[in-house]
């Protein structure tokens, strides 16, 4: 959460707190902040224990779930950059030269085959799912 805060920023914040609250009140405020932080940690630990007791051992596998993998950027990156073992499905016009069909079934289409000439009377391939 605070990965970008360095020692310089911490010193500036400490000096600002010293000037704002004064040297008399600063130790008591630090003590109160530490006590509040301990109470928050105990409350979180208690809630975690209650949740574990309530859910039981059936949901132990949920502890190992990494929620960061469901972040939209991570999900899209995995989907776009993942190596697929399946051969890609080529959609479009089924009428074409046999070289294109053979190359498509092998999972490769050469650029020269993709730019093949077609009859001007034939409409271009149309994919209803893409529109």
Which features characterize this protein?
131 residues; mainly alpha; 4 helices
Topology, number of strands: 0
Strand residue content: under 5%
**What is the N-to-C succession of helices and strands?**
HHHH
Helices and strands: which structural class?
mainly alpha
What's the average pLDDT?
75
Enumerate how many helices there are, as a single number.
Answer: 4
Radius of gyration: 31 Å
Largest sheet: none
Assembly type of the shown chains? Answer: single chain
Helix content: 40-55%
Low-confidence stretches: 95-106
General shape: elongated
Distance between the termini: 42 Å
Description:
- The chain has 131 residues and is mostly helical.
- It has a domain at 7-79.
- It has helices spanning 7-55, 72-81, 98-105, 111-114.
- The longest helix is centred in the first third of the chain and has 49 residues, at 7-55.
- Residues 95-106 have low confidence and may be disordered.
Please describe the topology of this protein.
Blueprint: H1 7-55, H2 72-81, H3 98-105, H4 111-114
Short description:
It is built from four helices and no strands. By secondary structure, it is mostly helical.
